[in-house]
Amino acid sequence: MQDNYQREINYLRISVIDRCNLRCVYCMPPEGVKFVDHKEILRFEEIEIVVRAAASIGVKKVRLTGGEPLVRKGLENLIRRISNIPGIDDIALTTNGLLLPPHVQVLQDAGLKRVNISFDTLDSERYRELTRFGELSGAWEGIVAALDAGFHPVKLNTVVIRGFNDDEVVDIARLTLKKPLHIRFIEFMPIGSSNAWATGRFVPAEEIMSLIKNKLGPLIPAKIPAGSGPAKYYRLKGAQGTVGFITSMSEHFCSSCNRLRLTSTGSLRPCLYDSCEVDLKAPLRNGAGIKEIAALIKKAVSLKADQHHMLDGWQDNRVMSQIGG
Ligand SMILES: Nc1nc2c(ncn2[C@@H]2O[C@H](COP(=O)(O)OP(=O)(O)OP(=O)(O)O)[C@@H](O)[C@H]2O)c(=O)[nH]1
Ligand SMILES: C[S@@+](CC[C@H](N)C(=O)[O-])C[C@H]1O[C@@H](n2cnc3c(N)ncnc32)[C@H](O)[C@@H]1O
Ligand code: SF4
Ligand code: SF4
Fold first, then answer.
1. Number of domains in the chain
2. Best residue for ligand 4 mutational test, from 273, 276, 316 (most atoms within 8 Å of Cβ)
3. Confidence band (pLDDT; 50, 70, 90) for 49?
């Protein structure tokens, strides 16, 4: 399906829960956030109707995110439901990885195709500081579990933060030499980050690329390892994996935006950075079927902004984990 700017919209990001087992400083304020009541969160059968409706009008890729999607009990049941929907050819998960080891097999058996794992530092003290209490070894075990299960590609998301982990980008990129890992360095976005912590922390991708090239040699443009996201990929000479960059700030990719978001409370959000939303929960709970929901999805697509206006500041009182990252 096309939006008003001739962009093909075929990717639905679904936030399955607003809760999380971490409290990353760039994602949640220090005081934490108030979680919504369970009954406000869409049930699996409701999400299934939304995906069936989306598939009927051209959505092909689904990504489950959150909050932390693995905190949602029985996630494999949702994956199984989605993998049975004709037209959906990719089901992926974005996770902090901590809960992956015990669930990886059941998720894969249910139809999960790919995982992207947040991994911002190689230093356990820093990891604890960034996540406010997480254990780095747990995230690494999640990555190993994903590789051992045979997921391909396994992508890592590294948000680069000045004065925090910008001195680690070379060591993190080096991981791709020996392991089939696809690291994406992400520009820090000013999302819900009115706190002082965020100020002056942005590092442009070009600077990250220079740091890597100076130490590890040329970055050779590489084929996109499966996916629907906006990263641009490169390979270090002889590397098994790739190094990618997500340049939301320095060179936004809105003109090729292909996505819609479904919040955990059942609103469709046409653009990450625009507070406009279309409610699906009330219609679903009033008995709307696939046709009615498909019409509402089309309405949301027609409301998609041409591009984000991040420099104007965050216009929402919620943060990334509440909207769905
Ligand atoms: N500007 C912008 N950035 C986004 C959007 N969605 C995700 N991101 C950023 O991209 C990062 C990576 O997102 P992932 O959840 O791993 O998904 P992806 O890159 O679309 O996934 P692939 O299909 O594997 O390419 C996130 O951590 C965000 O920082 C979006 O809609 N707009
Ligand atoms: C909100 S999290 C949800 C999924 C899961 N809990 C995780 O951490 O992967 C999704 C992604 O958003 C990214 N993210 C959160 N806040 C961000 C910000 N201010 N700028 C850029 N990326 C951000 C995280 O690094 C993570 O890769
Ligand atoms: S980035 Fe992911 S793991 Fe960290 S607080 Fe946000 S939702 Fe949780
Ligand atoms: S900021 Fe909005 S328009 Fe730009 S890529 Fe993200 S969702 Fe699409």
1. 1
2. 273
3. very high
